[in-house]
Amino acid sequence: LLSILALVPAVSFGDTRCPDVPSDQTIESIVYKGLVHTKQVVVERTISFKIGEPFSCDKWQRDHAALIDLDLFASIEVRFVTGDEPNTLELSFTELAQQILFPTFKSSDINGLMLGGGGSFLNLFGMDIRADAYGRTSVDPLFSATEFQIWMLSPWFLQWPFSWELIVTGVNSDNPIKTFVERSFAFELDIYHPMDDSFKLLYPADFYH
């Protein structure tokens, strides 16, 4: 027997036109392609399509916008495959670059020139966690002053749709002018619990030393 598959033309990022799917065709399977660095659960919790439901153009346009808003994908294509196999909604993704490295520097009257490096990680652990980090040290004398900062945020806290933001900062500096030593550390975690479209509860957890 010959299996004849009907491939609906692909739709890419920037073009949210819907595939031409007959209204009586329901989704029997959903396939995700191109998720190399992104966990499948990140996409599953973002889209609203369910197995057993018909394909909806309005729903796809909303889901497309929500997926693009994740800032994880350079392009998204959708196909609806019918034939002898189950009706399959096929989503294909091209992921953005996962990390960006950069130098950091600053200059002050107290510590002079400070040099270091940092990086931005757009999809930490494949779970839609954005992380930025940097560290730097004084040059002359070397390591007489050091500082670092880690900043992370995500729209989900574990399996709950609570957005959160974490900032960790550390400073270690000798001040030869005022003859004091600064040793400071800060931990700041804010969790936002959405109550409706315009109101969120804030749960802070801060530690300073």
How is the secondary structure organized here?
Elements: E1 6-7, E2 29-33, H1 40-44, H2 57-68, E3 73-82, E4 88-95, E5 99-108, E6 112-121, E7 130-139, E8 142-154, E9 163-175, E10 180-194, E11 200-208
Parallel strand pairs: 2-4
Antiparallel strand pairs: 1-3, 3-4, 5-6, 6-7, 7-8, 8-9, 9-10, 10-11
Description:
The chain has 209 residues and is mostly beta strands. It contains 2 helices and 11 strands; from the N terminus they run ββααβββββββββ. The strands form 2 sheets. It has a 7-stranded antiparallel sheet, with no helix packed on it. The chain has a 4-stranded mixed sheet with strand order 1-3-4-2, covered by helices on one side. The N and C termini lie far apart (73 Å).
